[in-house]
Predict the 3D structure of the following.
Amino acid sequence: MILTPEQRALGRRNFMKALVGTPALATLGAASAKPEPVRGGPVRLGFIGVGGQGRALLGQVSPAFGEVKAMADINPASLAKADEILAQRKQPPARHYVEWKDMLEHEPIEAVVVAVPLWAHADVVVPCLEAGQHVLCEKMMAWDLDGCGRMKAAAIKANRVLEIGYQRNYSPIYESAYAGVIRQGLLGDVYHARLAWHRNGNWRRAGDPPSKDYDPSRWGYPDFEHLWNWRLYWKYSRGLFAELCSHQLNAAHWFLGTSAPTSVHATGGVHRYTDGREAHDHIYSMFEYPKGLTVTFSSIESSAFEQRYEAFFGTKGTLVMFNESEALLFDEGGTGAATGVDVSGTPGGAGVEASETKPAHNATAANAPARAAGEMDATRASATELEISAFCSAVRTGSPLKCGPDRAFDSARACIAACEAAKASTKLPV
Amino acid sequence: MTISRRALFTLDFDRPPASIDRLVRVHRTAMACRVEVALHECDARHVAAARDALDEADRVEALLTVFRESSELSRVNREGAAGAAGVDPEVFGLLQRCAQLYLDTDGAFDITSSPLSRCWGLLTREGRLPSTGEIEAARACIGMLHVDVDATTRSVRFGRDGMALNLNAFGKGYALDCMAATLRARGTDRALLSAGSSSVLAMGGAWPVDIRSPLSSRPRLARVRLAGAALGTSGAGEQFVIADGVRYGHVIDPRSGMPATGVLSASAVAADAATADALSTAFLIGGPALARCYCESHRGTMALLALDGCDFGPLVFGAHPGATVEN
């Protein structure tokens, strides 16, 4: 997002040490912060797939809400790394399985967290639901519409929780922006939203097989490269549309109160990293919705200048959700004054740190602490923890979730169509 | 489908710990600093009211700034030099309050001291050491005592050549007071307002506010829990002039023409932010003697002072029913 230096400064100063500080608001009328043991105990969880994303989820399971009993993965190296996560968090070790079906058969688990390559989502999730498991499945919902449909039908038939994991749904800053800006009508009518996720680097991951004779072919991967870099091959992946766009489109649907688009134009290609991969490294798309709403999305792997944001342009104001860490609100007309909206920790437990006057141009002047290196990770980790806790809550209490089959289906449907449109560089109905 | 977190966690779960120690901060640059309305996370619905409050800060700035020719105060400064200048009722009320504060603080708070700040280069943040002659020349055109604030004609007249009014921190505090009124009118009765870290106004109950220590050896000077009260802070730790190896703070004592010394940080708690800001400036200049005297004669005022060379907690004078001090 190209902002003026002043606007950029406004944004730069903001956000938050999300997990820093003491629970000062307990004295301000908020509920106690101390988590209590869950009635019925923590939900007994099994993890299916503990690669990078699975381990990211594993590291955010709050013991008050979930207890990881077992883990299944076809890569033993991933299981070993997952053990380290549990040990670091001082949680009991979980039993290992290669085949997730064996885990379901032998473990007294109530719910599974699924983080396997996209193409396998439906074939894993549907049997889990049929076996009575509740399921938290990593995004995107499934590789194709048939898979999405089967997952939704299975959840309904089994009367089990099925949540698709998009951490923005549980991010405090998104919740606050929705409650404080969107629901208050501060944007007026929104006809256009722009989504961007721009990076400068190679998506290909370097890695070695767990052993010289490791053969993943019985799971559908001709070699370790196709398992390790499954996101680069169309058989397993929907490329950047599934991995990045679906996050932002899902949030846009939430904010804009809309379901799936009616059509999508898209183009893209492998322009920079011509190393045998199939999934595009540059994509550009335009989603059309009823009532004149158009949402554009681009993702490039050759410049990180614009970073990532969701911008909602309304007749009264513009809201920019920047890097998942700050919300910026700009008036349309009027004074033209830029209003920042952050959700921030309370530094040291205080609402404000008072001192002599701090001029606005002083980078250290803001009440909100400057962002420290790696702080974004803490922010996202917090949202993921809330997501998993909410899932466990839903399992125990039946409380509603934020991205069940219907909403997840909408964003998946759009991204699947966009992927096909980009391959053909054309417009397709959704 | 959207649901509130309350719906998620009230049945069998407490809210996760990560969710409760946050504030929604709605902010804007105004009056050359960050002006902020901090709301409880659960009060995010008041963001619109907070934005209206920030508009009010812009309005007050446009009214009182001396950095724009178009402001009411700039007009008063132009016309007051030539004769009696009629004043907008809102601004006139502020000038009356400032005149009273001048008397109550023995001249330590003086909104006519701009010529002094100018000769020290502080108005443009380009500090310099003026000559004795320059200081005396500046002193010759200051002193609220020499401003005729006439309530019958709602006008002011400057009694000395070269005089000008500049509300400084008082204006910033007043902006917070107006913002609070806007928030209350919009149904928001719980928020923590601040401007540039030096002006803080707590609406509703017990907001913890830390006063930064001017000494690096201490994490904070004190924590004050504010409820329906305002806190102003002045100091000379970060804005100063160095000349010939001597460090001069940016707050000038209008009575001597020299930078205030002896107090590193002065905070004042009062019912409104404008008064709190004026008093923090006055206490930085007048030191413990003025702070003690003022707080004894004005109930509901509290002062917290950190003295130069004293590495212990703040000196506390007076009390305010909406302020509790923790070290």
About this structure: Residues 375-397 of chain A form the longest helix (23 residues). Confidence is low (pLDDT under 50) at residues 7-37, 361-377 of chain A.
